[in-house]
């Protein structure tokens, strides 16, 4: 399928690994020019080479921490008016809420709620002016089915979800869409952190905890990041202009609800 976005310019945050990298790859393969932002220059450079090899697309890298004002300024200097914005940042650490002080909460809010909002604020008006824009926020399946050890993530990402719900309806008439992608368990580095915390809490090995999680997924496996990237690219496509304000869960059927 031709997604109709060849030549569009995309800014992808936390793009050097995992789901962010998958989204950058899929958008590049759809013909987008991609600016990839991540903190570690060496990892980012290798990831960008991989994306170029997979797509032949023009790829620019910005080694910066997107959760800081300086990092956001660097990203926007490289691409001031993206057609497509993919918000993403590493999730807060798991743990017990009794151990989190105000600083821990503020750090989680900065990374997983306020940073996406700042980037949306910086880019959405030019999208409105062009009457075309796509914003995708990578949040978490924990927004819909909270995970006890991920309280920081549950709270911060739910706040972003509420904000997006209102804004999406306000700008839809201008051809700009905002949607959230809610990943379940995907085969990325992040799973090691989450499963490791659960293994510790349950007093079992990492492999045992991982096997239990896989067993709980109706698909019987972890997600492939490429599957996630493909969904992101579709939401950014010309075919998805009537989809906005949605929280799309990709979890292999793990969430048991109807709605």
TrEMBL record:
<dbReference type="InterPro" id="IPR002347">
    <property type="entry name" value="SDR_fam"/>
</dbReference>
<dbReference type="InterPro" id="IPR050259">
    <property type="entry name" value="SDR"/>
</dbReference>
<dbReference type="InterPro" id="IPR036291">
    <property type="entry name" value="NAD(P)-bd_dom_sf"/>
</dbReference>
<dbReference type="GO" id="GO:0004316">
    <property type="term" value="F:3-oxoacyl-[acyl-carrier-protein] reductase (NADPH) activity"/>
</dbReference>
<protein>
    <submittedName>
        <fullName>Short-chain reductase/dehydrogenase SDR putative 3-oxoacyl-[acyl-carrier-protein] reductase NAD(P)-binding domain</fullName>
        <ecNumber>1.1.1.100</ecNumber>
    </submittedName>
</protein>
<comment type="similarity">
    <text>Belongs to the short-chain dehydrogenases/reductases (SDR) family.</text>
</comment>
<dbReference type="Pfam" id="PF13561">
    <property type="entry name" value="adh_short_C2"/>
</dbReference>
<keyword id="KW-0560">Oxidoreductase</keyword>
């Amino acid at each position: 399928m031709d997604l109709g976005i060849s030549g569009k310019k995309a800014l992808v945050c936390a793009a050097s690994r995992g789901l962010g990298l998958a989204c950058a790859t899929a958008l590049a393969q759809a013909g987008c020019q991609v600016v990839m932002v991540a903190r570690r220059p060496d990892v980012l450079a290798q990831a960008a080479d991989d994306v170029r090899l997979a797509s032949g697309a023009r790829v620019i890298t910005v080694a910066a921490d997107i959760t800081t004002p300086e990092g956001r300024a660097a990203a926007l200097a490289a691409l001031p008016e993206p057609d497509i914005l993919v918000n993403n940042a590493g999730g807060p650490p798991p743990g017990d809420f009794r151990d989190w002080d105000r600083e821990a909460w503020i750090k989680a809010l900065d990374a997983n709620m306020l940073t996406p909002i700042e980037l949306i604020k910086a880019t959405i008006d030019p999208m409105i002016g062009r009457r075309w824009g796509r914003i995708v926020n990578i949040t978490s399946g924990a927004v819909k089915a909270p995970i006890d050890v991920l309280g920081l993530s549950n709270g911060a990402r739910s706040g972003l979800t509420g904000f997006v719900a209102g804004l999406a309806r306000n700008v839809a008439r201008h051809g700009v869409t905002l949607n959230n992608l809610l990943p379940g368990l995907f085969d990325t580095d992040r799973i090691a952190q989450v499963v490791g915390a659960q293994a510790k809490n349950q007093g079992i090995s990492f492999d045992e905890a991982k096997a239990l999680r896989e067993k709980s997924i109706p698909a019987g496996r972890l997600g492939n990041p490429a599957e996630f990237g493909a969904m992101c690219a579709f939401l950014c496509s010309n075919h998805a202009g009537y989809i906005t304000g949605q929280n799309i869960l990709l979890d292999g059927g793990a969430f048991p609800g109807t709605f």
